[in-house]
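Subject: for your reference before the review

Hello V.,

The reviewers asked for a structural picture of the protein, and I figured it would be easier to keep everything in one thread rather than splitting it across files. Below is the amino acid sequence we used in the manuscript, unchanged from the supplementary table.
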Amino acid sequence: MNHLAELNTLPCAVIITDPGGAVLFINQWAQTAFGLTAAALPERLEQLLNRAGQIFLQTHILPMLRNEGVVKEIYLQVKGAASVQIPMLLNAQQGMLGEKACYRWVMLPAQHRAEFEQQLLKNRQQMQEFARAAESDRKILQTVLDGVKDVGILALSAGGSIEFANIGAELIFHAEAQELARNRITDWLSLPDDILHALSLPSELNGDTNSAVQYDIETELQLNDGRRIAVQLQLRRLAAQQTLKALSFIVIVTDIQQRKQYQALQDNFVANISHELRTPLTSILGALKLLSFDKKSVYTAQSQKLLDLTVKNADRLQQLIIDILDFSKLTAGKVSVQLQTKSLAGFLQQAIDEQLYYLPEKQIQIVLELPVSDVLVQTDAGRFLQIMSNLLSNAKKFSPANSEIKIETEMLAGFVKVSITDQGPGIADSFIPLLFSQFRQQDDSISREYEGTGLGLSICKQLTELMGGEIGYQKSEDGGATFWFTTVLALLKNEG
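And here is what came back from the structure prediction:
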């Protein structure tokens, strides 16, 4: 009965009767104005009128209401408290109360009519002002959205139907807003299953609990001429109470086709330059090492020191070029792996041996702990050793002199977990989420003290995942850092 509750708030008398005049409802204002109590409400409408009013009701008002369905502006007097006669203006209309036919009687004090009309006029003017302000805001918003011509903005209803498109969307989709509005977003864009599921949810689920749902992906846009272009898509769910229309999602579409082309050109350029630098540097480094380890040649202490420093810096430069070259290939999807069944112990020992010549002056000991039985793993030998080299060289670089690096292995379901723990300063909590991001280094004094491109861990992550494993970081219980990765288990030797 929410409707009756609303009638109780009106500043006028409202009475509802059945067609015969039996009272079904009297609002609060009428009870107060006519001096009625809840225990003594009239059973019929005529009980509120004097004798003349009762006769006029039966002979004129009710017949007119039955014939015409409405009565307007009839003046009569209603009994008030202490038999005081209150002049009222009566309006009546046929209607329904639930499933029952009824008459609605509205009575306004005659002396307050002018005030009431003035209030209605004022309310009407306010509503007109609100409507003009809303239209102005709509035009401003439309102007702003249409001014963003390099970004497409779409509003979707539940199910993915396009309800609104700005000029930017028209330019990207090569279609007018009216054409877009006749389609669903899936008619234009290739979307993953999780977004398709979100779009399929009924509109009543688009409340506050789901308003945080958001997606940010790269996908392809199918144009009318058959072309496909790369786009960046951001999709956000709207809270239901935020919109008047049944809008469930806002979608922002950015054309990244040109960016993709530039990125491909850049990747090819970096790969070519890195390859061109790597070839002569390999020859230079080889010659320098021959000179450095030539037992027949005698150098002064200063010359030997300069030669060792040159070899060390050439090694650094070669590693930088290798990292850049590997990263560009991984980014372009040009790296493949060849999985082979090999001994894990052999791999780990080889990785340790390769570290003997890296930072020998720090006198860091590498301790290897292996399972009792040798383990066979299915991996790409070169890429496995590259991951180990990156993680071990990082551990050495950040470890104090005369410390220890521990390599441990753990058998998991179908995998072997290799953990490398150092005694260095560890990783700041704020930087942990960025550890495996490209071109990122910890922003503190440690990162300024040591060299690096910020690519090593990103390369390790991509290579590990390419071979079906995972990689991660955890704080060491004794301080320092523990990096781990998993590799696919083949089988135990004593089972073969």
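For the response letter, the relevant points are probably these. Confidence is low (pLDDT under 50) at residues 206-211, 444-448. The chain is about 40% helix and 25% strand.

Happy to draft the paragraph if you're swamped.

O.
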